[in-house]
Amino acid sequence: MTHHTMNYFNPKTAAERYSKGRPDFHSNTIKHIKDYFQLDMKLNDALDVACGTGLSTKALLEIATNVYGTDNSQEMLNFASQSDKIHYSIASAEQQPFKDSSFDLITVSSGVHWFDIDKFLIEANRLLKSKSWLVLYENYFISEMVGNEIFTNWFPNVYLKKYPSPPRNNTYLWTNENLTPKNFNFVTEEKFKNSITFNKKELTLYFTTQSNIIAAVEKNETTYEKVENWLDSELSFFFENDDTTQTINYGNWIKFIQRAN
Predict the structure, then answer these.
(1) By C-alpha distance, which of 168, 156, 230, 244 is closest to 200?
(2) SS3 content of the chain, % helix, strand, coil (to 5)
(3) For residue 217, what are the contacts with CB-CB under 8 A and spacing of at least 6?
(4) What distance in Å separates the CA atoms of residue 187 and residue 180, rounded to the nearest whole number?
(5) Closest residue by Cα to residue 250 from 84, 116, 139, 107
(6) In Å, how far are 87, 143, 162, 192, 193 from 81, measured between CA atoms?
């Protein structure tokens, strides 16, 4: 099932907020990946698809020598973390500008639900070297504020009612029945939590990087300023003042998928 939705991360305003407001949890996830592969030496070539502003791409330098990042939003790439060792290019997930068998590893961070997944898997199979890996991971909001259960109810009952999630492709079954015809095997999945510390302003900014709010702004239902004022007043219940910080746990899963031959 495919639906062609708008690209919520195309607008410059969204890209700019994203570059400032997204927490950098990626190094922790990459450490899990490194441990799983028991890497003593760096891989040669890794590709990060739907790289956004490059947080997930930069983290790959910890485990790969040559790192490539692609995204279909030029605005996001304009804000990407620059490094001589990272090569960025604009491309859709399903059509990448590289030769066959170029990569030891392909990663996708919190992006696969926007893809035409079957087409992407065919492309990933083309790009990967024999027996190499496609690693998908997601850092997602589970509305868990340490020591504050009220927040857990606030998120679905207040926030999501006001700003619902736009439709995405969350129903894909990552089973070998789906993957084997594409020359992949689903090997394992790892689940854990990442803790991020926020003050009120940082958490407000984070929320405005979610596609929920970008969608509402882009449809002219509201403005960032109105959303920020609303969040400021809602979140003051959880933050005594501007310096107060809270620890928020994000859920994280990693799917390890190997090219069959």
Answers:
(1) 244
(2) 35, 30, 35
(3) 13, 223, 224, 227
(4) 12
(5) 139
(6) 11, 28, 33, 26, 25
pLDDT in tens, 150-205: 999 999 999 999 999 887 777 899 999 999 999 999 999 999 999 999 999 999 99
Give just the sign of the alpha carbon dihedral 77, 117, 184, 39.
positive
pTM of the predicted model over 0.90 = no
The amino acid at residue 217 is: V
φ and ψ at residue 187, rounded to 5 degrees: -95, -55
Rounded Cα distance between 187 and 197, Å, is 32
Residues of the chain with pLDDT > 70, as a percent, come to 93
Q: Using alpha carbons only, give the angle 145, 148, 152 rounded to the nearest 5 degrees.
A: 65
Looking at residue 9, its pLDDT comes to: 58
Distance between CA atoms of 115 and 202, rounded to whole angstroms? 29
Residue 113 CA to residue 107 CA, distance in Å, equals 14
**What's the token pair of residue 228?**
């920020």
Residue environment code for 118-127, b if the CB has 16+ CB neighbours within 10 A, otherwise e: eebbebbbeb
